[in-house]
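hey can u run this one w/ pyridoxal-5'-phosphate bound, need the structure tokens asap thx
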Amino acid sequence: MATDSTPGPLHVDTVVVSAGRPGRAPGSSVNVPVELTSTYAADGAVNYARVGNPTWNAFESALGDLEGGSALVHASGMGAISAALSLVAPGGTVVAPDQTYNGTGDLLIAFEQAGGSVVRVHAGDTEGFVAALDGADLLWLESPTNPLMDVTDLETVLARSRELGVTSVVDNTLPTPLLSQPLGLGADVVVHSVTKYLSGHSDVVLGATVVADTERGRALGERLRRHRTLHGAIAGPLEVYLALRGLRTLSVRFERACANAAVLAERLAGHPAVARVRYPGSGAMLAIDVAGDAAAAERLCAATRVWLHSTSLGGVESQLERRRRHPSESAAVPESLVRLSVGIEHVDDLWSDLEQALEAV
Ligand code: PLP
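ok here u go:
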């Protein structure tokens, strides 16, 4: 769904607001409608709603513009990740960080159990990635990693991957396209949990894949589209409408959340109940190692009143969680690590709530 032509390239803050709108014919709607249909009259561009839907098209157009490629919306972030991992044949070799979002980690274990190989490299070990890529089929990256917040040199690792013809996928959920645009660094596929920052209000579960507008990207995009259609993990149009509505404010929400995170990272570093702050220097996520054991970290999470003790991240409301409460979380994550998804509330309220809750540690 093209936007009206405008002079010159737009700033990203403008793109989040304007991309994926209906055309400006007299009397036209400012928003795309929620198209609730399972099928279409024959002989049109799309014949069945598992294949396509106009509400999807609008969201996909907007996200594609933000990432600099062509997007597909999926039923969840995991749906998008599953589709992206289908790009490596069974028995192939994947290179990935030694700690990733735990759902991805579990899928990689399942891939190994089905006969594939996974070479795991520490996220910060650029040389390790470069060496591991020789002979690999697929590179998986996530930077910063969730929840250890380790950062990868995307530029160097993606350049090597491209040189070797290794298909590369970057989970861009945490930085969002506002902080990182991996397709521009040579990545083949970007995946998102749209559930998080892009929709931003903790009211939908959705995912997306984005490929570059190149011959190679389009070929991968066709495989991802076919996977979505045949495996059937498709998004409901109402959820996609909500995601697009949320996306319109991404720029202001994320700016506030990132500013809050920077302040909190500094204040937490000076607190005696905090042994370590893991903050990559940008973004709205951080993690702390509580000075104490798992029980102390759980007490912190139970004692907040403004922060919501919950899993997930990227909503307008601040959320925190001890990640090792999930049995599938990596053993590399300390038992006392609490992940903080910083929201858009007033930073002083967030800080005083954390301060009083840290008393419980
Ligand atoms: N990728 C990252 C970095 C995540 O944090 C998550 C969920 O927390 C996912 C993917 C999975 O997304 P979803 O929960 O939408 O399936």
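The CA atoms of residues 324 and 335 lie 6 Å apart. anyway lmk if its weird
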